[in-house]
Amino acid sequence: MKRTISTSKFNEYMLPIIEQTPPPSQKGKYIRIKYATQLKANSVVFAFFCNLPQYVKDSYKRFLENKIRDEYNFQGVPIKIFFRKK
Question: Can you give the pTM of this predicted structure?
């Protein structure tokens, strides 16, 4: 199942959700996610670019994964999410 989502459409959907429910702060530092994109791979892989990728919790990763599944109908497909330094 190959489905590519354009970066602009993906960000139009994800960034308001991230603004409404930002990642929890860690050690007094706030994580700001700048943008996200789908990576070219055999499986479904997304990269979120932020200032402090090492502080993003698994629970927030699952939250984003569930939002992606709901919007883009990726039921039963493994989704990988990476956080990278901007």
Answer: 0.93
Identify the CATH number of the domain defined by range 7-85.
3.30.300.20
Instruction: Spell out the alpha helix ranges (H) of 21-79.
Output: 58-72
Q: Which residues contact 86 (CB under 8 A, 6 or more apart)?
A: 34, 49, 50, 51
- Amino acid at position 32, single letter: R
Q: Can you give the residue ranges of every domain in the chain?
A: 7-85
Name the pairing type of β-strands 44-50 and 33-38.
antiparallel
Q: pLDDT tens-digit profile of 52-85?
A: 999 999 999 999 999 999 999 988 889 999 999 9
Burial label for 50, CB within 10 Å (0-12, 13-18, 19+), is: buried
Q: Are 42 and 69 in contact (CB under 8 A)?
A: no
